[in-house]
Amino acid sequence: MKQLTVYHREGCGLCEHMLAELFALQSRYTFTLDVVDIDEDPDLRERYNTKVPVLAVDGDILCCHFLDREALLDLLGPA
Description:
Layout: E1 2-8, H1 13-25, E2 31-37, H2 42-48, E3 54-57, E4 60-64, H3 69-76
Parallel strand pairs: 1-2
Antiparallel strand pairs: 1-3, 3-4
């Protein structure tokens, strides 16, 4: 099972949009989803401040700002 992590911040419209897309995909694909607020960790805030939302799959960054749906679906495999 793939582990997806979204690095986000509260009040970020792009973050909310990416999360909504991922929540919708959970009904068809099997993956776990962790949502991490970068503003709760100074190191994460420094690393991802202008890149949020950031989506990592199994620890590797897949995309920033917008969901790369095609790349994600390739990693997740058939529904």
